[in-house]
Amino acid sequence: MRPRRPPVAAPSVPKPPAVIDRDAVWRELSDVWARPEPALIFGVGRRRAGKSWVLARFAQSVHGIYYQATERTETEQLAILSRIVGEHFQEPALTHGSGFASWERLFAYLTERTAGTPLLLILDEFPYLASAAPALPSILQSWWDHHWVGRPFKLVLNGSHISAMTQLEEANQPLYGRRTSRLQFPPFHLEDVRSFVPDYDARDVLLTYGIFGGLPGHLALLRPEDDLASNVARLILDPNGRLADDAQRMLDAFLGDADVHYSILHAIANGAHTWKELTQRIGKPGGSLSRPLKWLEEMQFVARRAPVTENPATSRRTLYRITDHYIAFWHRFIAPLLATGAPSLTPPDVLWEGRIAPGLNDYMGYPFEEMCRSWVARTTRLPFQPIRVGAWWDSQSRHEIDIVALGANRELLVAECKWGRFDDRDLQTLRARAALLQAELPEAAKGGPLTVACFSARGEWGNNVRREMERGTVVGLTGDALLSVS
Questions:
Q1: Which residues have a Cβ under 8 Å from the Cβ of 129 and sit 6 or more positions away?
Q2: Of 287, 475, 295, which Cα lies nearest the Cα of 375?
Q3: SS3 label, residue 20
Q4: If pLDDT is split at 50, 70 and 90, which confidence band does 11 have?
Q5: pLDDT class for 96, splitting at 50, 70, 90?
Q6: Domains of the chain
Q7: What is the pTM of this model?
């Protein structure tokens, strides 16, 4: 077992109990707030990742100014923000008046009012603001370069349109090279789900993650007093449920025409993982899929995977996977039901029993693999700290290993993941494939200690597997183990 990571000091701004996880984000904001120099921070993450929830509460904690932009005109946006600034500084003229005539006037007022005292300004959903006011990034550049130098002015630009936020940092953009730090809001990990459904057993926690994914905005909709079937029925299977059609509409806020993008997601969710399979399933030439697929990758809806031994940018063994379990579940189970009108005709509990529950064991195979890979990458309970974690498959995709972890000193871990029983034959197959993998490793990575691990969500083992676990020649882990990385 490798050593525990050293404890991290608590942030200087206490995190409210209502903010689950997000320790890294809160600590970065707290550290930035404590430093005397100006800061320009970019925050990125998918919709419903909890960005606004965290940022608004941090602003409240340090008496900062928070504004969430919407799809309005520049004049409307400036007027609303003027009122918020007026309320912050208790200026009736701004609160009840017409507001600032320009962004320059607004920034001048903030600079004069705060003088040498720190001020946090959060402009949430900044791409909406930049779309309404195209000159705003250039105006911010000017103020950053000439007016906020040496002042403790803290500006956070945050957004769900990940592609647009990334473009702000391109070399031809006004704010290029000026960002001082970045906030990342990835989906929650499996162990965080327990906070939303504290009374669920381990299997139902895994199923919850496999169905609803890791976005806090989705998990917060769960009723902890209801069982899993009831939550799925209410939120997804009921035509009026909050998540009944979210996967069908989630791209509309970013794109005017997203038909091809939705088709790509549906194809991947239903087994088309290679470029050839996608073009065949969708029925369009590759040229018409390249840009939509790249956009889905940029927006973190789709991930381009390659064997852990290869570079994803150059590998010819690429596979495409959906990153969000809720999206994959919806396209796998709900889209076919909607095509037949079943949710409008059949009670949600009947749909769960007849159409969803029977297919969950097959569906959960890949989500469980992803949970195990994430656990391996972050746990302190394995013999070494991996520097790379992924999967592996040969050039013909005939032989695959669910998890491969590489260490800095030639350590190697191979693992197979089973939602059901892990049989003796599975262990034999894993060892045979490990030999194929080792032959493919570069010389610098060969010859180190090998760890063989078996994951069974239900903790069901073949007789020989169990004996090897007892002897210590195989590491066996159950679904319960995944609920804690320490």
A1: 69, 77, 123, 136
A2: 475
A3: coil
A4: low
A5: confident
A6: 23-184 (3.40.50.300), 191-363 (1.10.10.10), 365-483 (3.40.1350)
A7: 0.91
